[in-house]
Amino acid sequence: MTKMPKPSVRRSAITALICGFLVATPIAVIANTDRGHPPVYPVNTTGLTYGSAADATKLEEEPDLILVMGDNGTLGYAFRTDLEPTMPKTPEEAAMRSLQGVKAKTINVYDQDGKNVIDTFTMEAPNPNDIQVLVIE
Q: Are 118 and 19 spatial neighbours (Cβ–Cβ below 8 Å)?
């Protein structure tokens, strides 16, 4: 995987606090579709789709492995299911999460086959002063 310099934001993804839990938006690098059709992703040797989720207009259109920049600047892929937040089951649970504050969540970053761990990816609440747009050319 390609090594890139660590961005100046706290972590390489923009994160947001929603109802007391974290949601991460992985890096958008390449537009691979026109907006009239669902994105088409390559398929790896294990049968999983991989790529940027930038062109997905709904969760069902995202690839199985989503392109992210790891904590150490390594480009790789995180499982879509690892990036999805756990939804609270009751209003009380949602309120409790909100009161407890946001805890960082670290997941593995894999190569495009989704087998070899090559880095980690930490999702945490953003500091509004640190949010910047990261452009990769």
A: no
